[in-house]
Amino acid sequence: MAGLPAAMAILMDTFDRYAGKEGDSKTLTKGELTELLRNELPGAGSNKAAVDEFFSMLDSDKDGVVDFTEYVTFVTALTVICSKK
Ligand SMILES: [Ca+2]
Q1: Cα(58) to centroid of ligand 1, in Å?
Q2: What are the EF-hand domain coordinates in residue numbering (predicted)?
Q3: What separation in Å is there between the alpha carbon of 18 and the centre of ligand 1?
């Protein structure tokens, strides 16, 4: 498996693995997001201010949790930005 389908599968798998840790398994709490960043992007989860900022960027409807749509929207935007450099 390669290319976009593989990338989507990784995105979904990553979300599911962390979203299921506490509370609603369809959303990421700030604690789950912190853990995701800490494990998947070494160094990124250790800076609390950066995590807070990242969380509020992801949580576009400001309900205090990051759902899959918010997560995918953000990752897609990030991918587009990265591909344009
Ligand atoms: Ca939200």
Answers
A1: 7
A2: 46-81
A3: 15
H or E segment and range at residue 27: strand 27-28
- pLDDT class of 40 with cuts at 50, 70, 90: confident
How many domains are there within the chain? 1
- Which position has the higher pLDDT, 40 or 27? 27
Distance CA 59, CA 65 (A): 6
Whether the per-residue pLDDT at 85 is higher than 70: the answer is: no
**What spacing in Å lies between the alpha carbon of 53 and ligand 1's midpoint?**
14
Residue 71 CA, ligand 1 centroid: distance in Å: 9
Q: To which residue do tokens 């990265």 refer?
A: 82
pLDDT of res. 7: 80
Residue 46 DSSP label: G
Ligand 1 is an ion; its neighbours by CB within 5 Å are 59, 61, 63
